[in-house]
Amino acid sequence: MTSGKLNRRDLLTGAGTVAIALAAPALAEGAFGASLRFKSDPFTLGVASGEPASDGFVIWTRLAPEPFNGGGMPSKPINVHYEIATDAAFKIIVQSGDVVADHRAAHTVHVEVGGLGPSRDYHYRFIAGNARSPAGRARTLPAAGASAKQVRFGAVGCQRWEHGFFTAYRHLADEDFDFVFHSGDYIYEYGPMKKSTPKRPIVRTMPDGFKAARTLQDYRNRYALYKSDPDLQMAHASTAFIASFDDHEVANDWKGQFEEGKIEPSPSPAFLKRRSAALQAWYEHMPVRRTMRPRRSIIQSYRSFVIGRLMTLNILDTRQFRTGPACDGGWQACPDAANPKRSLLGAAQERWLYDQFANSTTRWNALAQQVLMMRLNRSKIADEIETHMDKWDGAVAGRDRLFRAALAARLPGLVTLTGDIHNNWAGDLKLDFADPASQTIGVEFVATSISAGGNGADTKKSFKRLQGLNPHIKFYNNQRGYVRHTVTPERWQADFRILETVSVRDAPIKTRISLVSNRKSPGIRKL
Ligand code: FE
Ligand code: CA
What's the angle, vertex CA 443, arms to CA 326 and CA 175, rounded to 5? Predict the structure, then answer.
């Protein structure tokens, strides 16, 4: 417990009346009548910030003295105090206030902090009764229209508890990032792994009673387990996260109203219920705005961040609104993937994105999203194209529409940031992937997983063959880590940060390769 000795009168000076009277297992009446005394630390899941803006950000925490068992809080709202300071010692507090940790949202707290200055660091913390949270740091974005000289941020995704330690996050916390983009698979919904093999060892096991997540309580406990990780907590405390979700926040390869392999028009009520529980738990545990809470079981998660005149970061949602799987999903030589009705974004999100393109005022325009955009053909038959239907290859016409909208808008600096496939990749986005001589309209950087897939290896035998079939692909690596992006007005640099192992703690990190692309002549090059 951070501050078990503090009493509530000390903590809440000047905060007005906060009447809390509780009698519940985790709580006891204190010496000051209405004061709240926790018997054990309620801030077991740390703190987080997100949604950076030029005047603020969201700060997040959850009260959960018994994190893996529903949280251990009474079914009542609890007042939580927060403080924003310009110094790490909290001597200069520039904002403070009270907010309710609602029991209907698992006693999570989402505070939208505004009125702060641009391009600077702030520190934040929470106080509930006699307990004080660890402090976090968040940085505001440059003001709109400011000529920002550089932005440095991380790209991460795919953190499977049992496959490895989250060591990459400990190193990420030292990077002094402006923010981090999370491409999803923040949790994996699966039940416990049954078998440990040399190639895929079970590095750590989930607590007793954890099974495949289906109910709201299951998903809450899963987020609590993942968020109990000290390396992940350090990363969250170090910088703001821009969160998106992929499939495993709900279930493997789901899309729209459908589970893996299920085809329209037969959504199952059981899956809709599961998706609704999963998305509710995602909202509760991510540092996102309250406008992103699920409404009619849908989360409005596509959105944009404008970083001065330097960069627009468009966050895409390739799960909720996509069409059903072409040719039943998976690897396929599938003519129907080219059907113009196929879309990974859905009509409304496509319209929004192409408006973003048309109205962009920034030098760079990034698409931060989930699944591989460049073509990945693995066919062993000449003149046949076999691609994966869960990626943009499963909606070729949608990809063409996007490229053509970017061209029509004369969009500068198109860069796609991707996750999902548990390897590092980099490649050129070609107007026609079948013709290596066709125009390169942007580049794609794919960030490997934090832990999913286990240790991996630098490369794989089949990569040379794949590169022969897909000459636009310039780099591949199959180790764990994150990508560090440094964006300046004319050049984008991606440093692929990797670990030799995630099956033991505290492995060192190194840069495997640094790749760059110029804004005016895009194309992946080695630094
Ligand atoms: Fe994954
Ligand atoms: Ca995924």
Answer: 110
Q: Residue 149: is it exposed, middle or buried by C-beta count within 10 angstroms (0-12/13-18/19+)? A: exposed
d(CA 514, CA 470): 21
Find the 183 Cα to ligand 1 centroid distance in Å: 9
Least confident of 33-42, 90-99, 480-489: 33-42
The first and second tokens of residue 15, run together, are 């905060």
5 pLDDT more than 60: no
Task: Tell me the percentage of the chain whose pLDDT exceeds 70.
Answer: 93
Q: How many of the other CB atoms lie within 10 Å of CB of 525?
A: 15
Ligand with an atom nearest the CA of residue 157: 1
For the residues of 247-292, what is the DSSP string, one character each? STTTSTT-BTTB-TT--TT---HHHHHHHHHHHHHHHHHS---GGG
Q: What is the model's pLDDT at position 264?
A: 61
CA 320 – CA 256 distance, rounded (Å):
4
State in Å: Cα 188 to ligand 2 middle: 9
Q: Which of 133, 123, 113, 42 is nearest to 290 (CA)?
A: 113
Q: In what order do the strands lie in the sheet with 473-477?
A: 303-307, 311-315, 364-368, 414-418, 440-446, 424-430, 473-477
> Cβ atoms within 10 A of the Cβ of 191, count?
12
Residue 439: its H or E element: none
Q: Which residues are in the CB-under-5-Å shell of ion ligand 2?
A: 185, 246-247, 420
Helix (H, G, I), strand (E, B) or coil at 332: strand
Quote the ligand 1 centre to 253 CA distance (angstroms).
10
Give the separation between CA 252 and CA 271, rounded to whole angstroms. Answer: 12
CA separation for the pair 362, 52 (Å, rounded): 17
Task: Report the separation in Å between the CA atom of 421 and the middle of ligand 1, taken as the mean of its atom positions.
Answer: 6
Distance 72 CA to ligand 2 centre (A): 31
- Ligand closest to 159 (CA) is 1
Centre of ligand 2 from the C-alpha of residue 251, in Å: 9
Using DSSP, state whether 354 is helix, strand or coil.
helix
Question: Ligand 2: distance of its center to the CA of 183 in Å?
Answer: 9
Q: Cα–Cα distance between 482 and 172 in angstroms, integer? A: 8
**pLDDT tens column, 218-259:** 999 999 999 999 999 999 999 999 999 999 999 998 888 888
Angle at 462 between CA 461 and CA 465, to 5 degrees: 125
Residue type, 206: M
Spatial neighbors of 194 by CB under 8 A, at least 6 apart, are: none
Name all domains of the chain by residue range, CATH numbers in brackets: 8-139 (2.60.40.380), 151-526 (3.60.21.70)
